[in-house]
Amino acid sequence: MEAISLTPSISADSVDFLLDSFNSNVKNVIDYIAPVKASKKTGRQKSAENKHYGTSEVSTDQHLQQEVLNKKIHLFHRLNLKGKHHNKLRAADVLQLAHSLQSHEYCAEEELIQTFIQKLLMMNYRARYLKTKENNEEVHNDQGSYNSFKQGVDSDFFSFFLRSVSNEETSQSDQIHPMDVQMAVFHCADGFLKQLMVTKLSQCQYAMPLLVPDPFTQQIEFPLWTFRQINKSWKIRNINYEAISQTQPIYKAETPMVFFFRFGSVSSSKSQLMNSLINEKHNTFFHRNCPGSSRTRVLMDGVVEIAWFCSSGSYDDKFTKCVAFCNLHGDAGDHEKQLQILTEMASVNVVLLPRLDRDDRSRTKLEELYKGSKPIICLLTENASTLIKTWKGKYMIGLKDRNQPEVSEELRRAINDCLSESSSTFRLKDVSKHSDIIVDEEDDYDCRRGREAAQQMMSLLEKKDLREIKESFLPHQGKLWHQWSQKNKELHRTRADETEMEISKKHTEMKKILEQQYESDISEFMKLFIKQMNIDAEHEKMFFIKWLIILLYEYISADRSALLHKYNEKWSTVLKFNDSIDKSEHLTTAQIEFERISEKLQSAAFGLEHIMREIGQIYESCSSVKKNKKDLQIHFSFLPSLAAEMMASGFPQELMDGDAAHVPLVWISAVLDQLVQKLGDQRVFVLSVLGIQSSGKSTMLNAMFGLQFAVSAGRCTRGAFMQLIRVSDEMKTQMNFDYILVVDTEGLRALELAGRSTRDHDNELATFVVGLGNLTLINIFGENTAEMQDILQIVVQAFMRMKKVRLNPSCVFVHQNVSDITAGEKNMEGRKRLLENLDEMARLAAEEEDCDVQRFSDVIRFDVQKDVKYFTHLWEGNPPMAPPNPSYCENIQELKETIMSESFNISKMGYNISDIQQLIDYIKAR
């Protein structure tokens, strides 16, 4: 235990010691400063004075409330959000390819919302640091005033000084506070956009809204729904000092919670002090010294924000476990409900205190907290004393004239001391148990109905072994489907000496397998899903899908987390032996063990993609025999419209089955047909991605388009998924496309780690993806030459095959995790080396494919200067607390602009949706 100074024992009843001992003459000081600070009194203090002097307290309060209300209305009007508080912004409105405003140093007020959302969706934490053109113009105007003064136009110094002060006050009063921009979006967003926004705030390592007063009614909302997609990872050390990884949905994680609040107006920044505890290099909580901060904040009073410190398992962690931090904005005395909820739920309370009058009602609450059993730390803004322990779990720290690192260290020690003696834990979802607050999930009828339908499905999985669920509930995608896929591959790899009879036999076997598949029963689980997807209420249906994704993840997360830990450990072992010179029998043993864990992990995977795959297989089996199943409540021909509707709503659709490594052509063609029926035969630009496993492909796409492809260590994406991104109306005229179809793929060489042959699999995947894409992003991670050689060989072979069938895709190489992307000479050398490798691979592939090719540019149009991008590190620091690197976000934006430029060049050679299904058929037949 760290040493903490202890004063002589005092009674808890002597709480006046806390409030008065640091002032030798409190009354004289208050009398002295009262006239000076009269204009800054709170509404509560003014009301007390009005009552004393006999004026109308009610009318004054009403006047103040009306003034605040007018400011809020004016703010929404300035941000071009008039009417959006009721007619909400939708996720579909922002998840589209629009003209980028991010490269502009300054933006107009009416562009603040769009710019903030664009940056946030790209995980750029600078979304909070926006400057408006109006403020920039004021700088120039001030400079003009100064020049006029120098030229003697107005030689009166004091007149100039007063005008400058007046300009400053006008500037401050006109400036829109960055957190008002964030909260305005939050208040005007629908449930899906709110959830996406809060998920992105979490990825940026920013605090998230926990309790939010409505700006017009002051009714407090707890937005539990917005936290449902957030998972946090951390490491703790066990009794053997081994680092143990944990990943949990944050709404159900049980952690200690430290609650910060203040009474009155204080000179020190509470949020800045909290940042020094969580991550001193990042502004988790926005504070008064952040860029763009002003005194004009109107939407943050009464808001409680929450952030989590996630320990890394290292010995220099500030806290040894995951700890939640809550921050109440504004004077806690004005927000009694928030104060009551959080002080009750906290493991430790931390209060910032100015001098308080003896008749200040905040003293009553403070005395109550001090006498209670819960630890409390009082930070005294007008006292300069070091950390003092006044009683068990009761501490004082002076803040006056002290440097922040010293105060922060003392506060950390006090909090750790309190946590070591407390077993109290906090669970986010338990906030909903408090009365007199609105819980968004309960308040939204469609959200509640969607959850009930998803829970009904999940009830069927109770007490079922995770590895047997797919076999029981999803029988159509089991062994029969895998057997059919293997037969189909053999059919397309016909040997030269294979007879017509042998080929006919395979066709007969495949037909027999489909007939057996048709005889499989549709599980009750799938019947419920199909029934719910067949309802007319679109909003409820979307909530149902979202809830099902959330509940399925929660259901499998515990088992998968343990398996994933073993998987990553064994993967590291295989890599270590694979890179060693002496590849002994240890490598073979490790590979066998890795394959066993990998198969367990694969069987334990159960998500929406497996449910949709089952729908696809039900459809294909019915199509093969041309009749409906007896236990299917709708005609099978309706099933593709379910998938098409989900695609049109922004959900990914599995294109290649990751387990069977096969494209279900009948199903995909039917889905695309239905998509044409729903959207029209729209023009699409197909963007594909290829790369080694864990090279950051999905992360890159998520940052580029605000998507939510699965991201974590190891093999996340299985097979290939396609997702539609709408092009905004203003961009359609420039790009000549209506949608971008993004194709995300599993990592190449993923199976090789398990010691299995991957050459055919990787070549087929690369050929399929390259042939499908108008543009393919080739993702290379780090500077591992051997890995680069492997992927280049696969990629060049794929492009060579496309050349032979007269398809003309293009590519951009994205070299991620480069240590110094500003080193021009190093980049030139890297480009030269890459081109040499590509040319060499092209010559080797040409020999295999019997083509006359001398260089890579003979295969496809390629400019090594324009078509190679270098990306910096994704993280600014070390996970799990590191935010994304803003330079990485800038790299993403540059790549996005390159893609858009490429789309202009090939708009005449683009596809309609109907062309894609023909293209898939064509590529698979090669």
Describe it for me?
- The protein has 926 residues and is α/β, with parallel strands linked by helices.
- It contains 32 helices and 23 strands.
- The longest helix is centred in the middle third of the chain and has 42 residues.
- The N and C termini lie far apart (69 Å).
Question: How would you summarize the topology of this molecule?
Answer:
Layout: H1 16-20, H2 26-33, H3 43-53, H4 57-78, H5 91-94, E1 96-97, H6 112-121, H7 133-150, H8 157-174, H9 178-188, H10 191-203, E2 208-213, E3 220-222, E4 231-237, E5 243-249, E6 254-255, E7 257-262, H11 270-278, E8 304-309, E9 323-331, H12 336-345, E10 348-353, H13 362-371, E11 376-380, E12 388-391, E13 394-398, H14 404-420, E14 426-427, E15 438-439, H15 440-443, H16 445-459, H17 466-473, H18 479-492, H19 500-519, H20 524-533, H21 538-579, H22 585-604, H23 608-625, H24 639-648, E16 653-656, H25 665-679, E17 683-691, H26 697-705, E18 720-727, H27 729-735, E19 739-745, H28 759-772, E20 775-781, H29 785-804, E21 810-816, H30 824-849, E22 868-870, H31 886-905, E23 911-912, H32 913-925
Parallel strand pairs: 1-18, 3-15, 7-9, 7-10, 10-11, 11-13, 17-19, 17-20, 20-21, 21-22
Antiparallel strand pairs: 2-3, 2-8, 4-5, 6-14, 8-9, 12-13, 16-18, 17-23, 18-19
Secondary structure class reads alpha/beta
In DSSP terms, counting alpha (H) and pi (I) runs of 4 or more, how many helices? 32
Strand coverage percent: 5-15%
Mean pLDDT over all positions:
84
Give the proportion of residues in helices.
40-55%
Q: Any idea what the shape is?
A: globular
Taken together, the total number of domains comes to 3
Radius of gyration: 31 Å
Low-confidence stretches: 1-55, 138-146, 160-170
The tally of strands reads 23
Q: Termini distance?
A: 69 Å
What is the makeup of the main sheet? Answer: 10 strands, mixed
What's the arrangement of strands in the largest beta sheet? 12-13-11-10-7-9-8-2-3-15
Protein name: VLIG-type G domain-containing protein
GO molecular function: GTP binding
Region (Disordered): 41-60
GO cellular component, one term: nucleus
